[in-house]
TrEMBL record, chain A:
Protein name in the entry: Carbohydrate ABC transporter membrane protein 2 (CUT1 family)
Pfam families per record: BPD_transp_1
Location(s) in or outside the cell: Cell membrane
GO cellular component terms given for this protein: plasma membrane
Membrane topology of the entry: Multi-pass membrane protein
Keyword Membrane in record: yes
Keywords: Cell membrane, Membrane, Transmembrane, Transmembrane helix, Transport
GO biological process terms, semicolon-separated: transmembrane transport
CDD domains: TM_PBP2
Annotated family: Belongs to the binding-protein-dependent transport system permease family.
TM stretches of this protein: 9-32, 71-94, 106-130, 142-161, 182-207, 240-261
Main location: membrane
Domain ABC transmembrane type-1: 71-261
UniProtKB/TrEMBL annotation, chain B:
Chain segments annotated as transmembrane: 27-51, 86-111, 123-145, 190-211, 232-254, 294-314
Chief location of this protein within or outside the cell: membrane
Entry's localization field: Cell membrane
GO BP term (any one): transmembrane transport
Name assigned to this protein: Carbohydrate ABC transporter membrane protein 1 (CUT1 family)
Species this protein is from: Vibrio diazotrophicus
GO cellular component: plasma membrane
Keywords noted in UniProt: Cell membrane, Membrane, Transmembrane, Transmembrane helix, Transport
Listed InterPro entries: ABC_transporter_permease, MetI-like, MetI-like_sf
PANTHER family (alphabetical): ABC TRANSPORTER PERMEASE PROTEIN, INNER MEMBRANE ABC TRANSPORTER PERMEASE PROTEIN YCJO
UniProt topology in membrane: Multi-pass membrane protein
The ABC transmembrane type-1 domain, residue ranges: 86-315
Family from the record: Belongs to the binding-protein-dependent transport system permease family.
Key word Signal present: no
Length: 276, 324
């Protein structure tokens, strides 16, 4: 038993060091955003906050004159995509869990099958389709294709079929309730927790999306935040302080969401994996 | 429905929806997915397949497409840079994938058996890299990995130069001088580490969720039979984790073979010196959007897709076994 205790101590220490490695990049990201380039590029690098935060932010705005616009655009796209996913995925999930209709299973299998298509496969043709439609540099190019994800349909179907009895829908129908009214008066209020989870996942995924905007947005004004950050790289002497503050701005909302809802997020993200 | 006498018609329409509504509604409800997927998923895929058999000069418009058969595929496969990008992809996939699982599985077991109060915090800390912006964090890592001033070199060399009685006791394990991570020999290690860092928590959570489904009485029975904890780990935990391990490894294979964002940002979109950090997905992107060769790029994307499909199939043969 004594050797077990020693093993356990080593294991605890390893987990602790691992946790530091996981968090350290975030820490330095915040620290560096408050230091000048010479401060960051010195030996040893700074490990506490400096006083260049405002200067760095102004440098960021010099390099990226549309940064506020980029930020607003990212937020707008993420919110609209999230709202559309909540609506369309819950409708489809409701149909697959509460209705019997022809081709139901075949259609569901098809939707699940689309999850196997790797995103890079559609990269080139999507860019060409968007340019044919005249949607280059248009938020539509990022919103419409992402408006209804297969993963969201799966999550909603699981949630509705496990939490709402079919009799409830049938009873409402007996009483003469219109179909769409059943959805928004009975189903929606009962699936708000699932809306929360799917909403968070969709928002984060859209906010972080890089490959999508990379091929359809080439006007600096229409860049999303990840693209704008990337543009800082090709500027010769890279302004590391400004890069860090930009990265912090891109990451902070996510950290905030994660802190308030980490359990739900982790469960939601892995539920498809585990149950599927 | 016609639009003649209005009141009668409205009543009939209402009646129609009450009778037929639940027959039509499900089709309406699932239609958004199929409309969107048809236009922005299926059509582009078919178009990309079509494109991969054509030569096309983008500047000359869609009419200038020319059927070339499998020429794009042959050209892509014979291209040295494509071959090296495939090699890079596999090396990075292995260097980041194997440690991910080698760390995640024991870590999950340890968290499962030894953490109670701090449990959610620890899981959260390991999971948080997974949800953060790849671009933002890759940029941060390029600073941390810089040769002369990077924090990572500082830590590594201080460990390498750690002396006890004038002997550098850790020099065999850690470098004693700053490593230039942008050199071709190290680029892949740098990328692999970032990928490892991002996904180790994700895999840990997958293993944890599988551990929670193992019935406790199995362990109780084993304890009564006199099995110690290591024996229990080897003979109960590991076999019970096999389906999840299969699943998690499949996800890692699929994900790692299409790596794009981390290498793209870390190497500044170029692939790095001697293109040592250029993955297959990056090669595809560069062929299309830098060299404007959409036909070859489409062929590359389908070759990569075939490789991923074959490996996923092979993995299910090897690891999937009879359990599934």
């Amino acid at each position: 038993m004594k050797s077990m205790g020693k093993d356990k101590l080593i294991a605890y220490i390893t987990v602790f060091i691992g946790a530091i490695i996981m968090l350290a990049p975030f820490y330095f990201m915040f620290i560096f955003s408050s230091h000048s380039n010479t401060g960051i590029l010195s030996v040893p690098p700074p490990i506490t906050f400096g006083d260049y935060l405002v200067t760095n932010f102004n440098t960021l705005l010099d390099f990226l004159p549309y940064f506020w616009h980029n930020l607003a655009l990212s937020l707008f796209i993420a919110i609209v995509v999230t709202a559309l996913n909540l609506l369309f995925c819950s409708l489809a999930g409701y149909a697959f869990s509460m209705f019997e209709f022809r081709f139901k299973n075949a259609l569901f299998v098809m939707i699940m099958g689309t999850m196997l298509i790797p995103p890079f496969l559609g990269m080139i043709p999507t860019a060409m389709v968007m340019s044919q439609l005249g949607w280059m540099n248009d938020p539509k190019a990022l919103i419409v294709p992402a408006a209804c994800g297969a993963m969201g349909i799966f999550m909603m179907r699981q949630f509705i079929s496990s939490s709402i009895p079919k009799e409830l829908v049938e009873a409402a129908r007996m009483d003469g309730c219109r179909e769409f009214k059943i959805y928004y008066r009975i189903i929606v209020p009962l699936i708000l927790p699932a809306f929360g989870t799917l909403g968070l996942i969709t928002f984060i995924g859209t906010w972080n999306n890089f490959m999508g905007p990379l091929v359809v947005m080439n006007d600096m004004k229409m860049f999303t935040v990840p693209l704008a950050l990337r543009a800082l790289q090709g500027t010769g002497q890279v302004p590391w302080g400004a890069v860090s503050i930009g990265a912090s701005i891109a990451v902070l909302p996510l950290l905030f969401l994660f802190v308030i809802a980490s359990r739900r997020l982790i469960d939601g993200l892995t539920s498809g994996a585990v149950k599927g | 429905m016609t639009t003649m006498t209005r009141p009668l018609n409205a009543a009939r329409r209402k009646n129609f929806w009450l009778r037929k509504g639940n027959k039509i509604a499900p089709y309406l409800y699932v239609s958004p997915f199929f409309i969107i997927f048809g236009a922005f998923g299926l059509f582009p895929l078919l178009f990309s397949l079509y494109l991969s058999f054509h030569y096309w000069e983008p500047a000359a418009g869609l009419a200038s497409m020319e059927w070339v058969g499998v020429e794009n595929y042959v050209f892509a496969l014979e291209d040295e840079w494509f071959q090296s990008s495939i090699y890079n992809t596999f090396i990075i996939a292995l260097k980041s994938g194997i440690p991910q699982h080698a760390v995640a599985l024991p870590l999950a077991y340890f968290i499962h058996t030894s953490f109670t109060r701090m449990r959610n915090t620890v899981i959260g800390i390991y999971f948080v890299p997974y949800i953060t912006s790849t671009v933002a964090i890759s940029l941060v890592f390029t600073t941390l990995f810089s040769r002369d001033y990077g924090m990572i070199n500082q830590v590594l060399t201080s460990l390498g130069n750690f002396t006890i009685a004038d002997i550098k006791v850790l020099a065999w394990l850690f470098p004693t001088e700053n490593v230039d991570w942008s050199r071709p020999a190290y680029t892949k290690d740098m990328i692999s580490f970032v990928v490892f860092w991002r996904f180790v928590g994700w895999n840990t959570v997958l293993y944890l969720s599988a551990l929670q489904t193992i019935p406790k009485d199995l362990y109780e029975a084993a304890t009564i039979d006199g099995a110690n904890r290591y024996q229990q780990f080897w003979h109960i935990t590991l076999p019970m984790l096999k389906p999840m391990a299969f699943f998690a490894v499949t996800l890692t294979i699929i994900g790692n073979l299409q790596l794009f964002e981390e290498p793209f940002i870390i190497t500044g979109g170029t692939g790095g010196i001697e293109q040592a950090g250029k993955t297959a997905a990056m090669h595809m992107y560069i062929t299309a959007f830098v060299e404007s060769d959409f036909g070859t790029a489409s062929a590359i994307s389908w070759i990569l897709f075939m490789i991923i499909a074959c490996l996923t199939w092979l993995n299910s043969k090897l690891l999937g076994g009879r359990n599934d």
